């Protein structure tokens, strides 16, 4: 069923269809970014295709690719024929593909999410606000160069000396590593780090290295010293008491 | 404020402002289950403008998936739609299996169908019960949750956890069915039928319930398609789209079941579609129990994918190494992209996964069904009364974990 969509699009758009694929049984058509909205509009309006059911719109980040950084993906379905198709285009950082929110209303929120997560703006979108994150958030977290353990708390972390865990917790909470350290990989290092062998290779940032961990350890040491001092003091007073 | 009779004349005849009143509903509001904020402009009690703001439960699911192995995603998907986590487990397992090009043994397919349908029954019971409760009908809520708990009892016996099962595995399930599995499920079925019947008796001729549900929160067929609405919500508008029928996965093509559709796309139709789907799910479960083989493997026979048996891990070096490699490096998938989708509790639950050939997902996109339902809710609510938000939002069945990820 979906093969028919690919053939119809190839027949109509000719060389403007850059690639087609049916890997893993998912039919896909690749177009240039300038044709993005036009092909989508055609898919919906064409009487043979009638791709009227919006399914999903998302992006994938390839920071190491030189030609264009993002893949933009649109998935639609026809409620008449039951055919499904995936439309793909390549988007450079800063490029603005045309919005599809006038074609399918569902694209409105999907495009807002892509803007929020990847920083791809859509030309002509009626309401280009962040949707999942808050307005004060800096950066776009699903970009590979956004560190996975970076935190941007709206409320500052609490500093309480004698209790280690009070919410909101510090950024050292949770696993401090990522399998791939994108930060240094993009800087040119080889960082396909498996956590098991990473330590031996000295590549993996461990908790003990981080400043936060050092602070905690310093805090623990200080408290132990304080406790032992208090303990000695109370022993002294106990001795004094028995002496009297 | 002073009592009215004590007000002087000019105070009593104070002119009301003609501007719309702006009201913040949520994010922490008893009826906004999950945490959703709605900024509402009111003219009297009529909604003139509405801004739905999700995201208060955003945990970075998709980013988190990019730093573990494929198998480590299972606990995360449990926490997407936490009302029917088993369906998410099955969905994720199927997505990775599509990438690997494997198919689980028949017994496992039936097992996944039965567990998944049980989860769907629990999901619909919860949604319908909560819808009724928010309109003041507390008894149906308790009665429906009673059966949901019995469903969870079965899931707990099978998986060890009531909600966050983490029971799916790539290439199979964590454990084979228990010896009493079929009997337990068969014993539950009459109870489910009984409670559905009781719900109908209690609610379907209740004037208050009818008035709040019928003709309220109407979604048209065209809107539903345009917004990407799927599942019970789409079916209530008359779109007969059910992934189990249209793109059968597992062994759904072997079962005889109907896809209930509504006509008006209002709250009433959504309620009734869910109620009928419970019956259809039970039909599927009955047939699956009958057809499910009692013996046979649950997992695919491929040591590169499936964990070795625990006994072997502790006694043989080969199994220890295999276990270590699978846990620490993760199984390797071919390079490529797949989109795999199942019928979740709220509609088409899709996983678009990108693999770079390593043991870690390069990108995981989950298509959350209720995300698009919530996007459509603005049009369903505009022009209605403020009190209609409660039943409409309830029947959209927004699940925070899935919507905000």
Order of helices and strands of chain B: HEEEHHHHHEEHHHHHHHHEEEHHH
Beta-strand portion of chain B reads 5-15%
Strand order in space, largest sheet of chain B:
1-2-3
Instruction: Quote the CATH topology of the domain at 2-143 in chain A.
Output: Beta Polymerase, domain 2
User: For this entry, what is the oligomeric state of its chains?
Assistant: heterodimer
Task: Tell me the CATH superfamily of the domain at 2-143 in chain A.
Answer: NADH:ubiquinone oxidoreductase Nqo5 subunit
CATH topology value of chain B: Cytochrome-c3 Hydrogenase, chain B
* Corresponding CATH superfamily of chain B: Cytochrome-c3 Hydrogenase, chain B
Secondary-structure element pattern of chain A, one letter each: HEEHEEEHHHH
| CATH architecture assignment of the domain at 2-143 in chain A | 2-Layer Sandwich
Number of separate helices of chain A: 6
The biggest chain-chain interface is: A-B, 42 and 48 residues
> What general outline of chain A do the C-alpha atoms trace?
elongated
Quickly give the structural class of chain B: mainly alpha
Alpha carbon gyration radius of chain A: 28 Å
Largest sheet of chain B: 3 strands, antiparallel
List low-pLDDT spans of chain B: none
How would you characterize this protein structure?
The complex is a heterodimer of chains A (244) and B (405). With 244 residues, chain A is an alpha+beta fold. Chain A is 32% helix and 14% strand. A 3-stranded antiparallel beta sheet of chain B has the order 1-2-3. The mean pLDDT of chain B is 87. Chain A binds chain B through residues 23-26, 52-56, 58, 60-61, 73, 75, 79, 82, 86, 104-106, 108-110, 117, 130-134, 141-142, 146, 148, 175, 177-180, 192, 194-196, and chain B through 53-55, 58, 60, 62-64, 66-68, 98-99, 101, 223, 225-229, 239, 241, 246, 324, 328-329, 336-339, 348, 350, 352, 354, 358-360, 362-363, 365, 367, 371-372, 375-376, 379, 404-405.
